[in-house]
Amino acid sequence: MNFSTGTISKLLSSKKIVFFTGAGISAESGIPVFRGKEGIWNKLKPEELANFDAFLRNPAMVWEWYEHRKKIIHESEPNPAHLAIAEMEKLFYEVTVVTQNIDNLHRRAGSKTIYELHGNIERNYCIKCRTFYNEELEFSCGVPKCKCGGLIRPDIVWFGEYLPEDQFNNSDEAAKECDVFIVVGTSAVVYPAASLIYSAKENGAYIIEINLEPTEISSFADESIMGKAGEILPGLVKEIENKLS
Ligand code: OAD
Ligand code: ZN
After folding, report:
1. Ligand with minimal distance to 152 CA
2. Where are the domains positioned within the chain?
3. Mind telling me the catalytic residues?
4. Domain 1-30+78-118+163-245 is of which CATH architecture?
5. Is 95 helix (H, G, I), strand (E, B) or coil?
6. pTM above 0.85, yes or no
7. What's the CA-to-centroid distance between 123 and ligand 2, angstroms?
8. How far apart are CA 245 and CA 20, in angstroms?
9. In the predicted model, what is the mean pLDDT of residues 125-149?
């Protein structure tokens, strides 16, 4: 097993666990990550797709990209990493998932307490009156519009926008109260989401990182494990189950 005995004994004496996840946890489900060699942001420019002005300039292009991502997401399934996190609910008093992902895979895997910092691809709203349109949208007459005439956009946080306040505040509270904070598959460079790692640490949490490669927070974490989330997390569940049985 990859984990140190210190980490395992810390987990065994912990009640509240937070998982903080990024695109890397869904990579094994076939959803592309943003940064690194195979990252989306190597091929596409965030300023042309993931910001409000870009949407106003060319809503059809932005929608085309999100419909493409939605298709990939709909064709994907939760992988062993998502399932292992859901399984952890049987092993700890409280498990909270804080995700930067918009793909619903934690929910589909069965996790119960999930805070979504960057929105959700299944929701859309009118930019004028904020009415939500969460059903499949109709694109046959061009970019979908609200009854009020306003453009409908995906409920995804774009660059320069605020995070949903309730989701961030609940996440921050969970980060500050937890015993162990496990960072999975994120480059930890996008703020304010990444600030939760520091909030957790300042409030005494033990920080574990799981990633394919070292990141901004590797030297700061109490334990940093390099490898695939879909292999490491199920291994961790097994190890804890064995110790508890
Ligand atoms: P990134 O693409 O920046 O980082 C993905 C991380 O996952 C990298 O550090 C990879 O090394 C790691 N990784 C890839 N495959 C993995 C695997 N199988 N197991 C473990 N780790 C793996 O994605 P995020 O950190 O999530 O924002 O990016 C943060 C935000 O930037 C996203 O939420 C998105 C983006 O712009 C918005 O859409 C608002
Ligand atoms: Zn409207």
Report:
1. 2
2. 1-30+78-118+163-245
3. 118
4. 3-Layer(aba) Sandwich (3.40)
5. strand
6. yes
7. 14
8. 27
9. 94
